[in-house]
Every structure is written in structure tokens, then in C-alpha cells.
Amino acid sequence: MNIYIIALLTFCFTLIGGFLAIRFKDKLHLLLGFSAGAVLGVAFFDLIPEAIELGGAAYEPAEIMTFTALGFLLYLLLDRVIFLHGHSHDHNHDADAEKIKHNERRGILGAGSLSLHSFLDGVAIGVAFQVSAAVGIVVTIAVLVHDFSDGVNTVNMILKNAGSRRAAIKWLFIDALAPVAGILSTAFFTLTEQSLGVILALFAGFFLYIGASDLIPESHHAHPKFLTTAMTIAGMAVLYGAIRIAGV
């Protein structure tokens, strides 16, 4: 399969997921629930196992999980310290404006992390095809599934954090272009399996924080119904099935 066709597919799958999220934004709590499951599913069923496998030659599984914990804590610090400017309970215009700015920063942080992950997905495709065409195709199938959910997740991260539709579309296109850039970049450098394993472990920590500390509480907050929980379970199940099928 031509690498340029694959790059185009990653772009299209991401856009499809994102525009569906925008189209059905009135059901955002359900999409957030599904996104939470999808993000956690990527971390548990793909990133962590891949990190352990790729980094196994240089690191013990416990060390890989330490990198995952480090990623979780790093994202926590970014979210709570660097991008947190206080939650004032004073109901005045300045406090409301500051809260909106804070939420926008959180949305940018989340969308930026998803875009970086999408770039790494593209790198993974390029590196896989350097190994063999068969390995490249398997990785491509998994990445295309991720790209669809990444498009949904990127839009949701912006919209749920006081972002505008225009900002959501901007970040959606950034996320869609990220795997394309990742694929093309592998023509200029090579990445060792050990390094890729560490990076994937860090991103697993990022996604565990996003899913468990952000998306799940937000999806359940306004609509504490069984359906939002079911959508979270469905998100994990879909990613689990897709990753297992792609790995056959």
C-alpha cells in the first residue's frame, strides 16, 4: 500500500470523527462518555502493551510502568499548576472571565496532547513500514481506528472546555495533519524501539489522566445516567475489539 495513500487516509479518518462530534454536539455528554472509554482503551490495550513490547529490550515492565506514572504526574502538574490560575468562587465578571480562560487552556492542553499522539501514530506507521509491508499494514489499521476516535476526542476536548466551534475545527485540522507529518518525517530519521517504547509509555500516562480525571467526570456531571456509563464501557470495548482485530 502506498505510504501517501495511507497518509491521506489518516487525515480523512480524523476529520470524519471530528465533524461527527461537531454535528452531534447536542449529545456531547454521550460522546464524552464514549471518548473517555476510547482514550482509556488506547492507553490500556494499545499504548502500554506496545510500550512494554518495544521497550522490553532495555527496560523491565515495571520500569515502563514507571514512565507511564511519570506521564500521568507530568500531565497532572501541567493541568493543576502551569495552566491553573485559581478557581475563584466570587461571582463577578473577572472571575468568570478567568475561569473561561482556564478552561480554554485545559482544552488546548488536551487537544495538543492528542495531536502529539497522532503525530507519533504517524511515526509508528512509517517505522512499521521500514520493518515490512505486513507489519506496516497491521499498524495502519490500528492507527486509522485511533485517528477516528482522536478526531472525536480532540473536538470534545475543545468544546467541553468553553472552546468555540471555530477553535474545535482548527484543532481538528491540526490533529488530522499530525499523523501525515509523522509518516512523512520518518523519511528523515529513524527511531529506536526503546525510545518509542518510552514515548508511548509517557503518552499512556497522559491519556489515563485525560480519561479518568477529565472526560469521565465531565460526561457524568451534567447527565448522571446509566447511558453515559454505558457509552464509556462501549468506548473501551470498541477500542479493545479494534486493536485485537488489527493485531491478528
Report what the structure shows.
The chain has one domain (3-246). The longest helix is centred in the middle third of the chain and has 39 residues, at 93-131. The protein is built from eight helices and no strands. α4 (93-131) packs parallel to α6. The protein is globular. The chain is mostly helical and 248 residues long. 84% of the residues lie in helices and 0% in strands. The chain starts with a helix and ends with a helix.
Largest sheet: none
Integer average pLDDT? 80
Poorly predicted segments? 84-90
Number of distinct helices:
8
Number of domains: 1
Strand pairing plus helix content: what structural class? Answer: mainly alpha
Helix content estimate: over 70%
The helix/strand series, from N terminus to C terminus, equals: HHHHHHHH
**Which band does the percent of strand residues land in?**
under 5%
Shape: globular
End-to-end separation in angstroms reads 18 Å
Gyration radius, rounded: 18 Å
Number of strands: 0
How would you concisely characterize the structure shown here?
The chain is mainly alpha-helical. It has one domain (3-246). It is built from eight helices and no strands.
Main traits of this protein?
mainly alpha; single chain; 8 helices; 248 residues
Give the topology, please:
Elements lengths: L2 H21 L4 H28 L5 H22 L10 H39 L1 H27 L5 H21 L7 H30 L3 H21 L2
Helix pairs in contact: 1-5, 1-6, 2-3, 2-5, 2-7, 2-8, 3-7, 4-5, 4-6, 4-7, 5-6, 5-8
